[in-house]
Amino acid sequence: MRTTERDIAVKVLIAGGAGFIGSTIASACLDAGIAPVLLDNLTTGRREFTTGRTFYEGDIADGALVDRVFAEHPDIGAVIHCAALIVVPDSVADPLGYYRANVAKSLDFVGHLLRNGCHRLVFSSSASIYRAGDDLTVDEDSPLAPVSPYARTKVVCEGMFADIAAGTRLRVLSLRYFNPVGADPRLRTGLQLPRPSHALGQLILADQDGVPFRITGTDYPTRDGSGIRDYIHVWDLATAHLAALRSFDGLFRDGTTATAINLGTGRGTTVRELLAAYREVTGRPIGAVEAPRRPGDVVGAYTRTDRAHQLLGWRAEFSLTDGIGHALDWAAVRARTLGEDDRG
Ligand SMILES: NC(=O)c1ccc[n+]([C@@H]2O[C@H](COP(=O)([O-])OP(=O)(O)OC[C@H]3O[C@@H](n4cnc5c(N)ncnc54)[C@H](O)[C@@H]3O)[C@@H](O)[C@H]2O)c1
Predict the structure, then answer these.
(1) Residues contacting residue 47 through CB under 8 Å, at least 6 positions apart
(2) Single pTM value for the model
(3) I need a surface site. Which of 30, 150, 182, 336 has the fewest CB within 10 A?
(4) Residue 6 pLDDT level (bands cut at 50, 70, 90)
């Protein structure tokens, strides 16, 4: 099967399309007139996020299934590969499982894609692979220093895809996400987990449970001692993928075969600033206590955004308060949307 540049954004295969980010990308595709085809084994993804969408239940490593997807949708122009296991402590406890799920299966998947004549791959990578400079910013040329097996699977995948691209028609764009927050503003999808472990999730839980929020780590080299992150609204992440599809072929016109772009807002927000923003959005005086760093926590970083703007013509548009507001809106409907009882 051959697709032309004009066709690339007509139909897109989203691996991991029943997960938090993949399902949001699928919604953005639908809103933009691009038909998403979802492939997901539902390990962490939710069937509810596939309702009314073209969906194949199964594994990215299942060659016969991938062949069937392409036989039934020969007009797929590109693949967005979000399928992975993503829990950092789990990757420490089960490195074998993580390398198998994230690396070995991705290798099989790319073989299946190439066999089916599909050579445009957008890969969900992570900002957790960087070592931040003293100013806590990074760009795509910053040194890599992944600190967990999870993050290392991303580095290994990027390198593996680059090697394959150098010797085949495969072209790979790795999008390195910073810290996604929020939900689809139309609340079709959001975080599946009832008790998310990231700072905003912890804030919402503390607020709901009426307990003080724990600021874990107050001795980092930041402006107020708490950790810093680049919180990007998940809808902005999704629209970056639309921009990536539009720009894809142009990125490789000069002979490049694999490249990476950071997706963040360019703004660093400390945990104390996040707490202040949360208080502002809710109007509630959420209490807070200072606590020691948790094992594995890092000071964090935020991105310089020039490359995303230059190459994709994209910038994040939502504010942090939008992200907090949409996360709260989603938290209010999550259990009902997922057919769970409210205690999650
Ligand atoms: N959420 C974050 O904070 C974050 C940050 C940086 C990068 N990422 C990357 O973005 C991608 C999506 O993350 P997410 O937050 O949506 O997680 P998620 O767990 O919600 O989504 C992952 C999806 O992939 C599916 N999946 C996993 N292995 C599969 C396989 N072998 N075959 C088919 N489907 C499979 C899961 O069922 C799930 O629906 C991942 O690659 C992740 O590493 C996420």
Answers:
(1) 18
(2) 0.96
(3) 336
(4) low
